[in-house]
Design goal:
about 25% helix, alpha/beta
């Protein structure tokens, strides 16, 4: 009988799956309009009082996207003040929607990926995932890996799309 040989495992290919880095903590959208007078005007005294009385522990160990869903025009210090309340609890706070938050989370993750293990390796960036990986994360990852790898591919080991090959 012929022995079945796993050519993929013998190929020296390394697979990097961004889903493996996906943090499990909750994502929360914080809507500032709830703290405004008639959901449209910022009255400083009332605004500060509502913030002071809010239960900030709700945001413990969460990722927070700060938005204002009304057409209110807010001063910069309003976002800064809210951030000062959120900061002791939240893992990350951004001004933007949940999509921007997810992109910001992955920016941090990719910044912390150690590329030394990928030096001069053939790397496949796994394509399919069950978690919401932002498209921008793949762009950032390629930017980080390209200077150190011998080649980059996208997809699965059985079916990859070549992205880069270091010239000889």
């Amino acid at each position: 009988m012929n022995e079945i040989i796993n050519k993929v495992s013998n190929s020296g290919l390394m697979t990097l799956d961004l889903e493996d880095y996906y943090p499990s903590e909750n994502r929360v959208q914080f809507d500032i309009k709830e703290f405004l007078f008639e959901e449209i005007f910022l009255k400083e005294k009332d605004f500060r009082e509502k913030l002071k009385n809010h239960d900030w522990e709700l945001y413990n160990n969460t990722y927070v996207a700060m938005v204002c869903s009304s057409d209110a025009i807010l001063p910069s210090w309003a976002f800064m003040l809210i951030t000062s309340y959120l900061q002791p609890y939240a893992k990350l706070i951004v001004l933007g929607d949940l999509k921007f938050l997810e992109s910001s989370i992955y920016t941090r993750i990719i910044e912390n990926i150690e590329v030394k293990e990928f030096e001069n390796k053939k790397v496949i960036i796994k394509g399919c995932s069950n978690k919401p990986i932002p498209e921008n994360a793949y762009i950032q990852l390629i930017t980080k890996l390209k200077p150190v790898v011998s080649s980059l591919m996208f997809g699965e080991a059985c079916s990859t799309v070549p992205l880069y090959k270091k010239p000889k």
